[in-house]
Amino acid sequence: MYATTYHRPASLAEASALLANADEAKILAGGMTLLPTMKNRLAAPSDLVDVGRLAELAGVSLAGDTLTIGAATKHYEVAGSATVKGAIPALAKLAGGIGDPQVRHMGTIGGSISNNDPAADYPAGLVGLGATVTTSKRTLAAEDFFAGLFSTVLDAGEIVTKVSFPVPAKAAYAKFPNPASRYAMAGVMVVKARDGSVRVAVTGAGGNGVFRWHAAEAALAASFSAAALDGLSVDAGDLMSDIHGSSEYRANLVKVMTQRAVAAAG
Length: 266
Description:
The chain has 3 domains: about 5-50, Uridine Diphospho-n-acetylenolpyruvylglucosamine Reductase, domain 2 (2-Layer Sandwich); about 55-165, Uridine Diphospho-n-acetylenolpyruvylglucosamine Reductase, domain 3, CATH 3.30.465; about 170-265, Enolase-like, domain 1, CATH 3.30.390. Helices cover about 35% and strands about 20% of the residues. The chain is built from 11 helices and 12 strands.
């Protein structure tokens, strides 16, 4: 690991100032990706700005039909929150299936979405549920936030502060995890909104990260049942292919996980 200067700001404003005044600063929340990258000398930030303990970025709340989760909220906190379980059980289940206990007790929702690993679970949750992401500068729809593999629209020094989710009529998340990493080889969030519209968001399979399966959305809007997907297939041309599974294999996984999610949503 290269030398770096560690900072623990007392406020979001101080964190923003530290990021603005450093040459090559990085935000540290849980560090589940950044620290291993630094240990392998694949990243060499001049400064680490630790926002993981900022009270401004913590907590879960429900106001009306909107569930809000602070960016520094850890995965295990989302998974175990009675508020999340009561409002959006599918989101609690998603968080509870991330990585292993060590990862869930250190990783944060803000760090996960800012890293935007193409096999991470939260991007499907955010896009499927039609979430909005609030940063230190602006508010963005989830679909406008993610910008491809390991890429978002965040500017230098911009910090995710919270994520807000509209409470759906029903939702479920199903994934086929890699047996070693527990990352999704295909993970699908199926959501039926209160207005009757349906969203199907897929992670772990897309060559460009999270995506929506629009054909499935149309079929499920007409008939919200697993059988409605029987005649559909996923185009393997834009899916990932690696040692863990071919694009054709992932295409089949996407359909199967979508059917399982629909059945679980009920």
